[in-house]
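Practice problem 4.
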């Protein structure tokens, strides 16, 4: 089965093409091509994503990326592959009688910025009409979960099996728009041998700012560029190397609460007050405060994760979302998983950010477990299959 993935939930325009098969009752996939075009530089002057600008850029980038995707996919194929004719058929209007061998189109339907989302959905509908391929609407957050099960994100046509997932599992989703703890179980009545049918239950989520949003807002307070996460992490790393600590002790919000919810707006406000009281921002002050902020975020996420592991008896932990690229957080999660003696699946840098590879993979899950032709519309909850 050949699957095209489309992702335009925020400011990254992404397309991916994968092929899937079942071998001995086991699901396998290979990545034909996965492309992401970042708009970060365009949005940096605004200190965040400007929705109408993102929409315009998606409209401009999608056709260009598709042609490049088809070219790269053709290069990864063996000479006898049925996918070789892609470049010749392409999306040219003079090839109306040719059918590109796309079995399904998987497109992000939400959550995300509405103008950006609809750009991808309209593009998917146009291709669906031309290629006679069904559309499968995909939840962006489910993409971050399933994407972390990939062993490799490299294109080149090599077949791979997904990482083994012991149930129950727990996903920590940390991105610019979300901070969630999700319990994952497998349906016992599944008639499909190659693919599991996951049941998702959100056990905790942010009450206000997401963790990635907090990183961006604190970076702005420290006069750092957008996106702020990598810049704060760079300063925090430098502070640890120089043994620079902050004189300000930031709160660890909701760390003692009896639930698994998060809150980061108060942490951001505490940074604002610290900067106001300091007056002039010296180099060492910025280094120490960046370190303290990253420490506070890490302590909060790790404490909640530990409580959730114990509550759900999780045997596997999956971390996904853009903030999962933070090396300090990754190191702490590795320590936690080792202490509990459970598996930890962290995404590669490519998978941690917004990408269409994870969307295409979830499309395979949905299509093989519940075949259907659906016109993408609306926003689907993570726990509503």
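Answer key:
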């Amino acid at each position: 089965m050949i699957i095209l993935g489309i992702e335009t939930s925020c400011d990254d325009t992404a397309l991916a093409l994968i092929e899937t098969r079942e071998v001995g009752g086991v699901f396998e996939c290979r990545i034909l091509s996965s492309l992401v075009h970042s708009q970060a530089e365009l949005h940096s002057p605004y200190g965040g994503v400007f929705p109408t600008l993102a929409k315009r850029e998606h409209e401009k980038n999608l056709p260009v990326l598709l042609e490049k995707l088809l070219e790269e996919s053709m290069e990864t194929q063996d000479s006898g592959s049925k996918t070789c004719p892609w470049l010749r058929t392409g999306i040219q209007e003079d090839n109306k009688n040719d059918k590109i061998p796309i079995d399904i189109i998987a497109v992000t339907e939400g959550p995300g910025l509405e103008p950006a989302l609809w750009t991808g959905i309209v593009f998917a509908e146009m291709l669906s009409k031309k290629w006679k391929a069904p559309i499968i609407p995909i939840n962006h957050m489910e993409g971050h979960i399933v994407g972390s099960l990939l062993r490799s994100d490299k294109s080149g046509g090599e077949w791979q099996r997904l990482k083994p997932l012991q149930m129950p599992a727990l996903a920590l989703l940390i991105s610019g728009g979300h901070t969630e703890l999700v319990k994952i179980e497998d349906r016992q009545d599944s008639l499909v041998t190659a693919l599991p049918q996951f049941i998702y239950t959100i056990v905790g989520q942010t009450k206000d700012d997401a963790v990635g949003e907090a990183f961006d807002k604190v970076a702005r307070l420290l006069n750092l560029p957008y996106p702020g996460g990598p810049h704060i992490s760079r300063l925090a790393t430098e502070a640890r190397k120089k043994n620079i600590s902050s004189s300000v002790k930031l709160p660890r919000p909701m760390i003692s609460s009896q639930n698994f919810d998060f809150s980061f707006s108060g942490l951001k406000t505490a940074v604002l007050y610290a900067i106001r009281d300091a007056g002039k921002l010296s180099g060492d002050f910025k280094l120490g405060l960046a370190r303290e902020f990253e420490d506070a975020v890490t302590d909060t996420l790790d404490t909640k994760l530990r409580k959730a592991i114990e509550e759900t008896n999780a045997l596997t932990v999956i971390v996904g979302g853009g903030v999962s690229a933070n090396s300090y957080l990754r190191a702490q999660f590795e320590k936690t998983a080792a202490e509990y003696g459970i598996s930890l699946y962290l995404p590669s840098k490519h998978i941690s950010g917004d990408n269409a590879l994870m969307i295409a993979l979830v499309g395979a899950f949905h299509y093989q477990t519940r075949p259907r032709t659906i016109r993408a519309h609306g926003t689907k909850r993570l726990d509503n299959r």
